[in-house]
Amino acid sequence: GYWGIEISRNREQDDFEIGEELGKGRFSRVCMCVNKHTLDRNAVKIIMKEDMKQDEKDLLRAEIAIMRLVNHPNIIRMEAVYESKKDIFIVMQLHSGGELFDRIVGRPRFTEDEAFTVMYPLVESVAYLHEMGIVHRDLKPENILCGDRIEDIKIADFGLSKMVMPDEIMKMPCGTLTYVAPEVLTLNGYGKEADIWSVGTIMYLLLRGRLPFDGETREEIIENTIHGAIAWQNDPVWANFSEDGKDLVLGMLNKDREKRYTAKAILAHPWITQRECRREEHP
Ligand code: ADP
Ligand code: MG
């Protein structure tokens, strides 16, 4: 069929009992579900095919193809895909500790060591995706799910993701305004590095307790992302952080995408490697 994937038709009613809603998007909602035979608990993303435009269908097809391809402990695993007349059902591993977003708001800022426990698996899995030629394009705390322990993260929502050739340049603006790289907004063409910018905004948010480039209006956020500088000086909060930590954030939030740190380079950065050694000594 259109989706270019093997999907079983009309089996969802037989196999699954759909439960409580976990999240909601424009075309989709994510619910708990229980396999009636095995009693396994899963999450299912239910996508309404009705009213989807061609480019949205293409994105959904890519979402399914990419989820089928990936296999990483910090990325949500897809279990099965089903289709009914109206909907597509993506059954996936349930990761029920809530969104990283909810673990950030309403708590004190993260120390550098606490931020590391989230950043390390995040960068490691982004390096894995980039190595496979996958750009996520919507990395943000709402799309990073936690386990019982906050650091047991899994990347979710490949709804805007794309398989790319090594130096492929993308133009389609997409993502979420406060996390999106400047080159995506200026329509100058972007690549994998756009994901690193988003990871940088997440690290900044963890450490600083607010977004690096924010504003009251869309225009203000765009203006700040493209032209705004990070005010390190005269900021008492940053004064407490290590030079390595600040260098890493700045290296990820470099407005020049060609100079921005790559996922591989981040994994070799002293802010990461020093803490990695300590963790191996005292797991
Ligand atoms: P959308 O494209 O609508 O943003 P997502 O795939 O991000 O869809 O899912 C929406 C929300 O549903 C997520 O932000 C998360 O809160 C919840 N969710 C998604 N997948 C899972 C999962 N596997 N386990 C638990 N909750 C999930
Ligand atoms: Mg999402």
UniProtKB/TrEMBL annotation:
Highest taxon above the source species: Eukaryota
Ranges where the Protein kinase domain occurs: 16-272
Binding-site residues, ATP: 49
Family stated for the protein in its record: Belongs to the protein kinase superfamily. Ser/Thr protein kinase family. CDPK subfamily.
The protein's name: N/a
Species assigned in the record: Ectocarpus siliculosus (Brown alga)
